[in-house]
Write a structure and sequence with these properties.
The structure is a single chain. The protein is of the alpha/beta class and about 550 residues long. Helices cover about 45% and strands about 15% of the residues. It is built from 22 helices and 16 strands. Strand 12, helix 13 and strand 13 form a beta-alpha-beta unit. The longest helix has 25 residues. Bound molecules: phosphoenolpyruvate and magnesium ion. The site of magnesium ion has 5 residues, from helix 16. Magnesium ion binds next to helix 16.
């Protein structure tokens, strides 16, 4: 057997199965000849548009609510006679059908974009329709999440947050992407669904549809054409490891009994029942923007309240930390994200979107408060991307006024960590979003797989920022947790606790190993491990130095 492909294992597990690739948008060849028979060419283009509309109609019939409405609106666009006229006109002028379809959609797109913000929101739908019709005409695979009709290993260049809407977790055995890092959305999605995932796997580009692979996400490897012995060895070892870790249960504690809350990260989607059943003390990060994704306008107050209440009921009697809308940059939303920002990660995102749309935040806080009042959960709220103390104070004031007594901030911007004392003085708690904190501290796009070494949460520079924030929390008697992906790393967890962090929030799959790692170290030992990591030269050195002295759990 050849050497396996390697990447970063970001969500534990082992699975084997056939590959199904996410096809990229089709490229229209520049040199297609003019059609000999324009009428026949127009008929081909019409058939392609009808085919796309029929597909979407079928999909619309399988879903309900907002998803069905979006698909039905796309069907109407695909069948729009004005679009058909534009296509026919282009073909009559000498364009081949794929060129005519792409150009007609581009023309339609420009018209819609100019017709005001509501219509501009439809532009992404048009791009999707155009790609589908062109893919039919060129007879290349349909872009988007594949549906081969059987369980498969999903292979993609990378996944976007909107892909999560169409991903059927029951069919996907594992995820492998060429790009992405430990903090990318692919990683977060895979963990929330409990699917094994390997990202930043450059060799994934070679994987072909239908070929069998063995994904070992614990080892960060993808083995091509594995024999049965390799599959059963890898699955057996994984099952044994999982069984060993499952022996420890209950609240998080160090070996000398110091409590460290173990919480889960959720998105309020299909993973909710499994997350609620997990052995956790509550939710440390409820990412509410997933309710807003892939829709033309914000969900109504009633819909928000219902959806939050569903989560609070599932966690009745436990703590739930709701993060208010974190739109922009890597999580664009059609109705709030500023188009064509030169640098979206540094633009109007997170809490900053409330500068332009204060009503969105106020409505959301009101819906959270109404849902909290109906249910028995201990609801906290926090704002994403807070940079300065004034923002923390203003957010806490707004949340308290809405009837939410515990209001905090995410520390994701280095300035907020450096001034944690002032930030925390104006609110009730902080939660370190180490994914974005690494991105901003190291000026490295969190989605850039090739910068994974800089984004590594083991970077001593990042750990310094964690220590500063946790220290301020300790002095002011306010809780400081970690809810970035770093919290789910069982080797890093005792280091974070040694730096002063009081809770760790992660995808449920990470809980058993983190619980076991904490139970294996006293608080004093956690502090020693933190010291070992802080004096290291870089991320790899810190990890290796801690691994050499940490107790095995
Ligand atoms: C983070 O940035 O660490 C975080 C938890 O938020 P998100 O990953 O949703 O940006
Ligand atoms: Mg973040």
């Amino acid at each position: 057997m050849a050497d396996p492909l390697t990447g970063i294992g970001v969500s534990p597990g082992v699975a084997a199965g056939p590959v199904a690739r996410v096809a990229p948008p089709p490229q229209v060849p520049a040199d297609l000849p003019a059609p000999a028979d324009p009428a026949a060419e127009t008929a081909l283009a019409t058939a392609a548009l009808d085919g796309v509309a029929d597909d979407l109609e079928r999909r619309a019939a399988e879903v309900t609510g907002e998803s069905a409405q979006i698909l039905e609106a796309q069907v109407l666009m695909a069948r729009d006679p004005a679009l058909a006229d534009l296509v026919a006109g282009r073909i009559a002028a000498g364009a081949a059908a794929p060129v005519a379809v792409a150009a007609a959609f581009a023309e339609f797109r420009a018209l819609l974009a100019a017709a005001g913000p509501y219509m501009a929101e439809r532009v992404t739908d048009l791009d999707d329709l155009s790609n589908r019709a062109v893919a039919r005409l060129l007879d290349v695979p349909m872009p988007g999440i594949p549906d081969p009709g059987h369980p498969f290993v999903l292979v993609a260049t990378d996944l976007a947050p909107a892909d999560t809407v169409s991903l059927d977790a029951g069919r996907v055995l594992a995820i492998v992407t060429e790009l992405g890092g430990a903090t990318s959305h692919t990683a977060i999605l895979a963990k929330s669904l409990g699917l094994p995932a390997v990202v930043a796997c450059a060799g994934a580009a070679q994987l072909a549809d239908g070929e069998r692979v063995l994904v070992d996400a614990d080892a960060g490897t993808v083995l091509r054409a594995p024999d049965d012995a390799a599959v059963s060895r890898a699955t057996g070892e994984f099952a044994a490891r999982r069984q060993r870790l499952a022996r420890a249960t209950g609240p998080g504690r160090t070996a000398d009994g110091v409590p460290v809350q173990l919480l889960v990260n959720i998105g309020g989607g299909p993973e909710l029942p499994a997350a609620a059943a997990a052995d956790a003390e509550g939710v440390g990060l409820f990412r509410t923007e997933f309710l807003f994704l892939d829709r033309p306008e914000p969900p109504s107050a009633e819909e928000q309240e219902e959806s939050y209440a569903r989560v609070f009921e599932a966690f009745a009697g436990r703590k739930v930390v709701v993060r208010t809308l974190d739109a922009g940059a890597d999580k664009p939303l059609r109705f709030v994200t500023v188009p064509d920002e030169p640098n979206p990660a540094l633009g109007v995102r997170g809490l900053r979107t409330a500068r332009r749309h204060p009503e969105l935040l106020e409505d959301q806080l009101a819906a959270v408060a109404a849902a909290a009042a109906r249910t028995g959960a201990d609801v906290w709220v926090m704002a994403p991307m807070v940079s300065v103390a004034a923002e923390a104070r203003a957010f806490a004031r707004l949340a308290h006024a809405a009837g939410l007594p515990v209001a905090g901030v995410m520390v994701e911007v280095p300035a907020a960590a450096l001034r944690a004392r002032q930030v925390l003085a104006g609110c009730d708690f902080a939660s370190l979003g180490t994914n974005d904190l690494a991105q901003y501290a190291f000026a490295s796009d969190r989605l850039a797989g090739e910068l994974a070494d800089l984004l590594d949460p083991w970077q001593p520079g990042l750990l310094d920022l964690v220590g500063l924030t946790a220290g301020a929390g300790h002095d002011l008697g306010k809780q400081v947790g970690v809810c970035g992906e770093a919290a789910g790393d069982p080797l890093l967890a005792p280091v974070l606790v040694g730096l002063g962090v009081t809770s760790l929030s992660m995808a449920p799959v990470g809980l058993p190993a983190v619980r076991a790692a904490l139970a294996a170290h006293t608080l004093a030992e956690c502090r020693d491990l933190a010291e070992v990591a802080l004096v290291a030269d870089g991320a790899a050195e810190a990890r290796a130095a801690v691994r050499a002295v940490a107790h095995r759990s």
